[in-house]
């Protein structure tokens, strides 16, 4: 009997370890999402390391393969190699596939994986999907089970998300094909470049399959407008797309989230363009050599791309320092929640701006469009900004110390990485291995999201059954 016990003991130990690991990963939907994304990055790193993935048949160095995989899965667009010449057709297809997978988002992708494996979603996963993707969500705070029931079958929503992305990308590709041909692209090459640019614009990635990138279309307004449209649709988020498709122009019937996202996005788009016009109109290296029409178009294009698009027509390093600072601000904000864009999100900015305005006017509650925004949403917004600023600051210090590059240029690339934008001042392509690993980690944390990272670390919330005495410190 003792022999049987001792023989089965190792198996029991292995099963116990597996159960503990499974519980650790699946106890939190956010933690599960991080594991899924990390696994995908490792998978695509392996694929991009294969000799067949490079154009010359050599093995891509680990640092370059890992960085490209992170940038691909996290739909960022930064690269340490020349994307148009380094990768073979196989490598380009791997990147195209990875961008579309990553574009679905961390939480949506994790839920889809769960559906594919178990054919069903547990309550915790349903609450997660409801909280991050539910277009019917009209209040802040913890999502309750009743809201999940109103959402219906989460799998249907996630399928709708995937189909919506496919339909939008297909529509963009159909429109881009004749535009690219008219712009001088070979008809056969356009069959690949049209869907590639469509995917890269909608997912807000910014990779280009051709030598010269989007800069060769700098005077082709149709191509630039289509790319901006793709970036806009990808950056506003699936809940807003759902609302627009359902209620069209009935503004009063939009959810508060949709109103805040659209209004803030449009305001930042025009404010960014006007600011770039004022700061760059006399810069001979950028807008100074253009006429009024070209200057206006390029200002709007730059404003749209700094929000998370990642395509560039003018050299970022040629911008004035003041313009680079404005671009950093726009990149840090990013796009909408539950979207392919990164950053702290426009709704976070809107909520905090409204809270500051309400405090300045002495109002007890924070209100917008006839709705009251609860205090827990404001606390989450503050947490997102604080964690985001901390990640950017630490990464900037470390990379500046490693590379000895000007801090302004490093800061630009770090914020571009955190906001998963893809624009660069030239620092990224010259990074040593240590710097590329730090920047890859910044991309991962920016894409997964500071709130998701925090929730993964503290998966369980404990109720406090008592309250401490109140004492007010001096603030400000």
Question: Using only CA atoms, what is the Rg?
Answer: 23 Å
Number of distinct helices:
19
Number of domains: 1
Low-confidence spans: 1-7, 110-153, 457-461
Main sheet summary: 2 strands, antiparallel
First-residue to last-residue Cα separation: 72 Å
Main sheet strand line-up: 1-2
User: What best-fitting shape do the alpha-carbon axes yield?
Assistant: globular
Strand content: under 5%
Q: What kind of oligomer do you see?
A: single chain
Q: How helix-rich are the residues, as a percent range?
A: 55-70%
In terms of structural class, how would the helical and strand content be classed? mainly alpha
Q: What series of H and E elements makes up the topology?
A: HHHHHHHHHHHHHHHEEHHHH
User: How many beta strands in the DSSP annotation?
Assistant: 2
What does the average pLDDT come to? 81
Membrane topology: Multi-pass membrane protein
Transmembrane segments: 32-50, 93-117, 157-180, 221-244, 256-279, 380-402, 437-459
Protein name: Potassium transporter Trk
Keywords: Cell membrane, Ion transport, Membrane, Transmembrane, Transmembrane helix, Transport
